[in-house]
Amino acid sequence: MSDALDLLLDRPQYADVADDAFAPGLDRMRALLDGMGTPHEALRAVHVAGTNGKGSTAAMTAAIATAAGLRTGLHTSPHLTHVAQRMRVDGTPAPTDWLADTLGQHRSLVEDVRPSFFELAVALTFRYFAEQNVDLAVIEVGLGGRLDSTNVLAPALSVLTHVGLDHTDMLGDTLDAIAREKAGIIKPETPALSAVTPDEAQAAIAEVAATQDAPLHRLDDEATWTTHRSGLTGSAFSLDTPVRHYDRLSLSLAGPHQQRNAALAVRAAELTVLADADDAAADAAVRDGLGDVRGHTGFHGRLDVLREAPLLVVDVGHNPPAIAATLDVVAPTVADRGGTLHVCLNAVRGKQLDETARLLAAHDAVVTPIPIDTKRALPPDEIAQRLRAQGVTTREPRPLADALDAFERSAAPADGLLLTGSHKLVDVLPPRFRD
Q1: What rounded mean pLDDT belongs to the chain?
Q2: Which of 169, 315, 356, 407 is the 20 to 30 Å CA partner of 284?
């Protein structure tokens, strides 16, 4: 089994080698899928792109579909601890035996095509979902959109969550350029749904949709919501869409920013799986899906509370807007308790660390840089130096397990520790802290 899995795990991975694993173009992807029997053509899909929020939006869309009684596939990336987590059906990852057997069947194809890790993982996802006869496949884009490996799909709906300045070396250094890359998932005469807000990015997306003759739904034109409660345990809000009023929905993902993602997911569901549902059935599916996103989808790593006192939270945010959204939830909670906010942080190159440092300084965070075993990771000493240059109090860099031990020994009950910076932190989380 391990030999077959190595066929996947030994392929170039973006998390390790970045540009060397990013090979634009869809020729290899099409060759892989042709050799696997074009499984993507059997899928009814919702395709989700964006700088931030795409994983959460995809998970919430899938949770609503599962709650509505559909057999639902969800593809997100990167995985937290095992590659099979990228391909889940109703929250359950693909069996490792299935992965090994399927890779073994296609060894010569993989050796001929020489795909990247991501290309092969996506192809396996499509094959698995097709074999599982899912009613809906919710597919998160990996990077960009236009040239992303997932963009061989002919989806029922294309969804755009957010456009920001990330991966500028590959997607462009303006919002207009990045928006056009992400809008590349919009297909001819196929509905698109956008929550993008900057005017420059909105205009680019509207232009792409017009050239594709694709009906464009804008979230801010079609949905309004009112917050009733928001905290680390989730939130409650009421939502109005063009077709329904949802009163006091409970959302299990924490943070005010998740309410916007939830509204986008509800509209995505309304335009697809709930299009013919009566009001009672739609309300029940939305209420159940949003109320237990993790249970329905196996989606983790977004403001997950691992301990209550002292508070321990993990979030996989890796760029300034994502980390800012996390800090806006965690920091006030710790401050209200009268405690000190501690942060274990790792960072990879190209993620605007100086801006993240300014955010941490504004919240008086005490930061321990964490080493991570990936070629893209910044050395912990460099992280510490750049944080201190922005006025951040830092501790000596140390492995995550040691940092957690030190926090448990010295923390007051009112203190809090946030683990953030990348998905890799979850992978090195000691077993006693995992779900």
Answers
A1: 91
A2: 315
| pLDDT, tens digit (0-9, with 9 covering 90-100), for 120-154 | 999 999 999 999 999 999 999 998 889 999 999 99
Q: Where in the chain is the domain with CATH 3.40.1190.10?
A: 2-218
> What is the sign of the dihedral through the CA atoms of 404, 405, 408 and 411?
negative
Indicate where the chain has its CATH 3.90.190.20 domain(s). Answer: 304-433
Pairing type for strands 245-251 and 234-240 reads antiparallel
Query: How far apart, in whole angstroms, are the C-alpha atoms of residue 180 and residue 201?
Result: 8
Give which of 175, 184, 202, 31 is closest to 112, Cα–Cα.
Answer: 31
pLDDT 10s digits, 250-301:
999 998 889 999 999 999 999 999 999 999 999 999 999 999 999 999 998 8
Conformation bin of residue 28: beta by default, left when phi > 0, alpha when psi is -120 to 50: alpha
| Cα–Cα distance, 236 to 251 (Å, whole number) | 6
d(CA 32, CA 26): 10
* Number of neighbours of residue 97 by Cβ within 10 angstroms: 10
Query: Residue 192: which H helix or E strand, with range?
Result: strand 192-194
According to DSSP H, which parts of 271-346 are helical?
A: 279-291, 293-297, 320-337
Least confident of 16-25, 198-207, 340-349, 405-414: 16-25
Does residue 1 surpass a pLDDT of 60?
Answer: no
- Is residue 366 exposed (0-12), middle (13-18) or buried (19+ Cβ within 10 Å)? middle
* Short-list 192, 208, 214, CA closest to 268: 192
Length of the chain: 435
Is residue 321's pLDDT more than 90? no
| Measured distance CA(50)–CA(143) in Å, rounded | 9
Fold (topology level) of 304-433: Protein-Tyrosine Phosphatase; Chain A (3.90.190)
pTM of the model: 0.92
Distance CA 103, CA 84 (A): 13
Reply yes or no on domain 2-218 having CATH 3.40.1190.10.
yes
HEC secondary structure over 60-111: HHHHHHHHCCCCEEEECCCCCCCHHHHEEECCEECCHHHHHHHHHHCHHHHH
